[in-house]
Amino acid sequence: MILTVTPNSAIDWTLFIPNFNWGGSLHADKAVWGMAGKPTSAAWILGELGVDTIAMGFAAGTSGEKMIELLEQKNVETDFIWVSGETRLNVHLFDRENDRQTLLAVDTLEITDAHIERFMKRFTKKLKQAKGLITGGSLPAGLTPDFFREVIKAAKEKGVPVVLDSGFPHLANVLLASPDLIKLNRAHLSSVMGHEIVSIEDAYQAARAIVEKYGTQVLVTLDAESTLAVLKESTYRIPALKVEQIENTAGAEGGILAGITYALANQFPLEDGLRLGTAASSAVTMTPAAADCRKDDVERLLSKVELIPYP
Question: How does pLDDT run across 194-249, given as a tens digit for each residue?
Fold first, then answer.
């Protein structure tokens, strides 16, 4: 079983409109629900792939109820701590005429020390069943980066491999807990290193330094065209796959988290996880709903993934 922990739970409502007009009435010609929150998005994708998954974290309000409904539709088991406020609702507006996208989001979860204590008790019990853990995303009010450190530390003590995806401040402090792999974008990596990462060689040297210092392997999204995977024994540049039609890129990062963690949980080579994750990420972009994908698309795209050794 793969376990996901999303402290700042969220869902997506995507509206496709012919054109955006300030001050006028906007009429959507399509509206779809999708998943948000990086670990929970990965759980949703794993559910589509038929992988036994439990999603945990904090949730609230009607948006939280909708999130649970969406997860259970994919056969994902849920065990969220219910708190005050409301699970974040991300509203994506797609302007078809201008091919532009706008996101509206509000963070409203209200988490207390009692909620955190209750979560950690449940989480510790669930770890006994887990073969892999995905955590990360943003932090709501009431939580500090120490939350991630405690979650990662507890998993590592049980021998559960951990994949982390988050660009929060003080990330270097969280790395002391030694997650097995961390996913970053160029800006997050620049923040960790304290200097701007410009070229692929900059990214390689910075990621290699993290591997050597913390024992944590690194996946860096360089741009929309490629990703760099710096593992302990090898490094690969992974070109983005070309798909027939891109519908929505939101939630695609959950695919790579799902693939990598699936490989770690089953003790497969990480190269297998990179291929599965890249195929899943690309499949997500082919659907209008955030983080949604079709298993058939993932399987069809697998053979097209390239892992190009670097340097």
Answer: 889 999 999 999 999 999 999 999 999 987 778 999 999 999 999 999 998 888 88
What is the three-class DSSP state of 181?
strand
Helix (H) / strand (E) containing 1: none
What pLDDT sits at residue 136? 94
Pairing of strands 226-230, 235-239: antiparallel
170 C-beta neighbours (distance < 10 Å), count: 14
Degrees, nearest 5: CA angle 52-55-282: 70
* pLDDT on residue 220: 95
Token couple for 219: 């996946």
Question: What does the pLDDT read at residue 20?
Answer: 80
Bridge partners, 134 (sequence order): 4, 163
| Side-chain half-sphere exposure of 53, counting CA atoms within 13 A | 29
Collapsing DSSP to helix, strand or coil, 207 comes out as helix
Low-confidence ranges of the chain (pLDDT < 50): none
Alpha helices in the chain (DSSP H): 38-48, 61-73, 113-126, 146-157, 171-175, 186-193, 200-214, 253-265, 270-284, 295-301
What distance in Å separates the CA atoms of residue 298 and residue 278, rounded to the nearest whole number? 9
Q: Which of 91, 36, 42 is nearest to 59 (CA)?
A: 36
Please state the φ and ψ torsions of residue 183, each to the nearest 5 degrees.
-105, 130
**What pLDDT score was predicted for residue 83?**
96
Q: What are the distances in angstroms from CA 31 to CA 14, 94, 289?
A: 6, 10, 9
Check residue 272 and give left, alpha or beta (phi > 0: left; psi -120 to 50: alpha).
alpha
Question: Does residue 141 contact residue 12 with C-beta atoms inside 8 Å?
Answer: no
Could you tell me if 180 and 216 are in contact, meaning their C-beta atoms sit under 8 angstroms apart?
yes
Read off φ and ψ for residue 90, nearest 5 degrees: -95, 125
Residue 54 · residue 126 · CB < 8 Å: yes
Q: What is the pLDDT of residue 28?
A: 84
